[in-house]
Amino acid sequence: GSWSSSDSVISTDSSGEPTGGSPIRVVLLGANGVGKKSFASIFAGASDGMDSEDCELYGGERMLTIEVDGETATIILLNTWDTEDEWALEHSMQTGDAYLLLYSITDRASFLRASELRITLRRHRPAQHTPIILVGNKCDLVRCREVSVSEGRACAAVFDCKFIETSAAMQHNVWEAFHGIVRQLRLRRDSKEA
Ligand code: GDP
Fold first, then answer.
1. Is residue 148 exposed (0-12), middle (13-18) or buried (19+ Cβ within 10 Å)?
2. pLDDT at 17
3. Model pTM greater than 0.80?
4. CB contact at 8 A, 93 and 76
5. I need a surface site. Which of 9, 25, 68, 194 has the fewest CB within 10 A?
6. Interstrand relation of 132-137 and 9-11 (parallel, antiparallel or unpaired)
7. Which keywords accompany this UniProt record (predicted)?
8. Distance (Å) of CA 26 to CA 40, 96, 142
9. Model pLDDT for residues 18-53, shown as the tens digit of each residue
């Protein structure tokens, strides 16, 4: 089933120390209503059923260690619900290691907003080293689709980021998006080491 990726969720050290190397601070960006809170609750929910209780950090941020390609990685999901709030947006653009840039495939305005956010992000993060994935969420709502897969892919190509379509409602591809972030960071790390 689509929830099978949760098998790869391992643990969060009860001391609050990451078990998978230095934690990756991931920020969810996107217009209101695209599914950021839904993403976050899937992320938080993954730790329920496990014997680790201590994955909630100050300010309600969540930390989780997952396994990607046989290697563990620790992710801290930062809270940035209100991306219309200038200050919160500025702050998140300065503190993240990686970004999931969400839009809803049923809402063209949110797609345009994602492009704006990408441009703002590039201003804050001119370096090529910051992993960014453009995420077209709500792909279960096929009849309400306003943004095609090829438009999403083309936009990601223009903005030099990866692309994935997800459904938080169906829990489809949500973990793949987090895995994609980890893989991108590793690629960068490995190319630096080489
Ligand atoms: P946020 O404002 O970006 O945090 O968006 P929310 O996570 O609050 O989601 C807004 C609304 O869209 C809620 O009613 C969600 O249940 C719904 N929603 C989020 N993701 C999906 C999805 O993948 N498919 C469908 N059908 N609805 C979704």
1. exposed
2. 44
3. yes
4. no
5. 194
6. unpaired
7. Calmodulin-binding, Cell membrane, GTP-binding, Membrane, Nucleotide-binding, Phosphoprotein
8. 11, 6, 28
9. 445 789 999 999 999 999 999 999 988 876 555 444
Which 3 state secondary structure label does DSSP give 54? coil
Q: Which of 27, 37, 38, 81 to mutate to test the pocket of ligand 1 (most atoms within 8 A of CB)?
A: 38
113 CB near ligand 1 (under 6 Å): no
44 lines ligand 1 (CB under 6 A): no
Q: Which residue has the higher pLDDT, 81 or 132?
A: 132
Ligand 1 binding pocket includes 168 (Cβ within 6 Å): yes
Amino acid at 79: N
d(CA 166, CA 177): 8
Length of the chain counted residue by residue: 194
User: What's the pLDDT at 88?
Assistant: 79
If you write DSSP's letter for every residue of 86-132 in order, what string do you get?
HHHHHHHHHH-SEEEEEEETT-HHHHHHHHHHHHHHHHH--STTS-E
CA distance 166 to 139: 6
Ligand 1 centre to CA of 14 (Å) is 31
